[in-house]
Amino acid sequence: MRNLLPLIIIALLTACEQKKAIEQRNRNYIELAFIKDTFINTSIIERPVYFSFDGTGDYDLLLMTVPVAFKEGDSLRFVRQPFILVNPGLHIAKTTSPNLEETVYPRVFTRDSQFLYLKSIWNKLEGRKVYFRLPYGKVVERKFVRITPDTLIIEGSGRRRIITNYANSYVNILTMQKVEPRSEYDPIYHIKFRNGIPYLNIFRGLGVAVSIGDSVDNTITAASGLVLHENRDRDDFYTDRYLSLLGDRWFTVDSWGKLVPRKEVYILEKNDTLRYAFQILDFYYPGDPTKPGYITLRYGRVKKARK
């Protein structure tokens, strides 16, 4: 019996450790109030799609395509690829489980960083020149004389424009005037302002690019060391440098050229008590792989972490 006692103690300790490990693992999992698959019956190739998980307020996800340039010898080849942007005002995290029902709760949330380069420098633009490359190569120089919550003063080509109440409007940088586009894909505008935050029109043609500095040859290096102007076509414009937690990283392409969503789960934090876990399941019309651009989402509201 004495010889068995150490073995019994070891077995009990091992069982206790295993129980603790299981309890700790369970604390990392989340419970979902509901699980729902939603097929979005609109092709993001045709137009951007704004999607809200709870159907209230502003969008949670912006599903769209963006222009990307690839070097082919001495020339460039432009294509459009799928891109998913989280509302920059919300927080997002990528989890480690491939299944929505067994999602490991993330420790750290971050903001989706698409266009934040423009947002972060917007308050520093006053008195500086910005070079815009419009679709098909035309470059225009504009100086931002004044930027206040209700007034925007722009100079260029010997002209000065005062734009008031621009916080939720569209601006044609060539004419330096507000315009009313027919849709988000309309090429007549170059900057869209939402609550005073600028967004480039990257939906149509080759998109709009910007360079901030004394000349188009200057680059900007962020505190993180990221060279903001460097991108796939190796020029100094922000043509195709899109930074986003999802962005174009949510899929791979198989040997047949078909887009395949990665088996990843994301959690979107709308506020302290409202969170959604979601996956991208498919990129094609159900039953028809010849019709790309139709996204199917699986999502569920996060109730709480298990205790």
Task: Write structural notes for this entry.
The chain is mostly beta strands and 307 residues long. The protein contains 2 helices and 21 strands. The chain has helices at residues 4-28, 116-122, and strands at 30-32, 36-39, 49-51, 61-72, 75-86, 91-94, 110-111, 128-133, 139-147, 151-156, 159-164, 168-172, 177-179, 191-194, 197-200, 209-212, 251-253, 259-261, 266-269, 275-285, 288-305. Strands 1, 2, 6, 7, 19, 20 and 21 form a 7-stranded antiparallel beta sheet that branches. Strand 19 (266-269) and strand 20 (275-285) form a beta hairpin. The chain is globular and about 95 Å long. The relative contact order is 0.20.
Strand content: 35-45%
**SSE string:** HEEEEEEEHEEEEEEEEEEEEEE
What's the β-strand tally?
Answer: 21
**Uncertain stretches:** 21-26, 214-241
Proportion of helical residues: 10-25%
Name the overall outline. Answer: globular
Helical region count?
A: 2
Rg over C-alpha atoms, rounded to the nearest angstrom: 24 Å
Largest sheet: 7 strands, antiparallel
Structural class: mainly beta
Distance between the termini: 39 Å
User: Mean of residue pLDDT?
Assistant: 77
